[in-house]
Amino acid sequence: MLLYQRFVPGLAIASYIVGDERTGEAAVIDPTRDVEDFVQYARENDLHIRHILETHVHADFVSGARELKARLNGEPEIHCSGLGGADWTPPYADHVAADGHEVRVGSIRLQAVHSPGHTPEHVSWALYDNSRSADTPWLVFTGDFLFVGDVGRPDLLGEEAKKELAHQLYASVFEKLPALPDITEIFPAHGAGSLCGKAISSRRSSTVGYERRFNPALQQLPEQEWVDRLMSQMPLAPPYFLRMKKVNRKGPAIIGPELPGQKRWSAKDVHNRVCDNCLILDVRSKEAFAAAHIPGSINIPFSPNLPTWAGWVLPYDRPTLIVTDTAAQMPEVTTHLLRVGFDDVQGYLQGGLDSWETSGYPLDTLGTQSVQQLADRLKSGVGRMTVLDVRTEGEWNAGHIDGAIHVHGGKLQERFSDVPRDRPVSVICGSGYRGSIAASFLKREGYDDVANVVGGMSAWQAAGYPTVTG
Question: Looking at the chain, which terminus has fewer C-beta neighbours within 10 angstroms, N or C?
Fold first, then answer.
């Protein structure tokens, strides 16, 4: 048996290919929308992808099931759970899976195990290699049901659904999971960094027995106590999760082999807004953005975290133009955005910001501030100022600057009214990355005196400055 785990940093997505070496047949589990890697792996290993399996309707990325099927001329058959009812059954499924539904790939048998709780329709896929044992599952693809060190969160469908899903999750953990032997390996759909759980380990596989013994979420307690402990300090879910649910439930648009967003736009075209209503997304470093940028542009520095923060803060109803350091980054930038459903990437500024500067068009800057400068200004008490902390609630509670205002960076656009406009604003996060995103929104909103604190709270604490907790 061949097993390939394909991991996407940032979103922390794990997808899989399993193949039978004798027959050359293969199945893909939970593919992302950028499917070339699956196609290439199959080609290099003489595999023919016959089946595409989904564990559930994903919330944090656009499913690649339709895209992969289209890329392979419609040959693979898509298997999706129908156990959540019609509202949770993707119409593009070739096979609507019930509990116990089987998919065969040579000597490999994949069996659906209904494991609701993260979502009502969720299934895990237990893999049996009949050449070794027809009765004992060798491994199980657990999707967002069971992670290494955690379980999937039950609150992504809103408060009304959370109570029932939490009950289902408890039953899945303590009634369904015990049927699997300790030796069965688990391969989840996410690793550390995903917001589909709160304490996912950086390891990307485990065994049922190890998790049963050491995973805190698998230690049995009275149901309500278990649920309360699971939900304690659960991180905020980005608003784009609900959009992804709708997109994946309906079926995402097929992009095709030609990557969009590779059109070059001259500085003149961008300045004259030839791309009507385009949002300008600047993916250069926070330092480069601070030094000079196009007025009104938003900064999300190029990194694996780009798609998560794009989903948090960017509108889905506007086309996007990219400002980047080099055109060579554009395929990856576009891929990042496509993974979270930003399909309308119109292209990029040819020649980067240099071309804008040499054309004589207006520029804006963003102030930066060292932690020493911030501390001196706070100590002197000269002039009123606002320290805006845009970290998570857990980070804030662990230690923050006395007198700071706390607004999660993903919620800032809903809470501009909490940030005074009549005084300077120093934005601080963990390292400066999120601070630059938040500061760029404040600048666009008309805040004049805004500075991003370089190094963030990491630098503040390393310099020995005081914090308060709670």
Answer: C
pLDDT tens column, 171-195: 999 999 999 999 999 999 999 999 9
Strand partners, 126: 111, 140
pLDDT in tens, 219-239: 999 999 999 999 999 999 999
**Under the phi-then-psi rule, with left for phi > 0, alpha for psi from -120 to 50, and beta for the rest, what region is 74?**
left
Buried b (16+ CB within 10 A) or exposed e, 454-464: bbbbebbeeee
119 close to 84: Cβ distance less than 8 angstroms:
yes
- Order of strands, sheet of 386-389, starting from the edge strand that comes earlier in the sequence: 367-369, 450-453, 425-428, 386-389, 405-406
Q: CB-based contacts of 60: which residues, under 8 Å, 6+ apart? A: 11, 13, 190, 194, 195, 196, 238, 241, 244, 340
R_g over Cα of the chain: 24
CA atoms within 13 A on the CB side of 181: 10
pTM for the model? 0.94
Give the pair of three-digit tokens for residue 10. 């940032």
| Closest residue by Cα to residue 372 from 272, 236, 464 | 464
429 in catalytic set: yes
> What are residue 434's phi and psi, to 5 degrees?
-70, -30
Which position among 80, 196, 275, 429 bears the catalytic label? 429
Is the CB of residue 181 less than 8 Å from the CB of residue 136? yes
Distances (CA, A) of 2 to 18, 45, 129: 5, 9, 11
Sorted by where each starts, the structural domains of the chain and their CATH numbers stand as 2-250 (3.60.15.10), 264-358 (3.40.250.10), 367-462 (3.40.250.10)
Judged by DSSP in three states, 63 sits in strand
Burial 37-50, CB ≥16 within 10 A → b, else e: ebeebbeeeebbbb
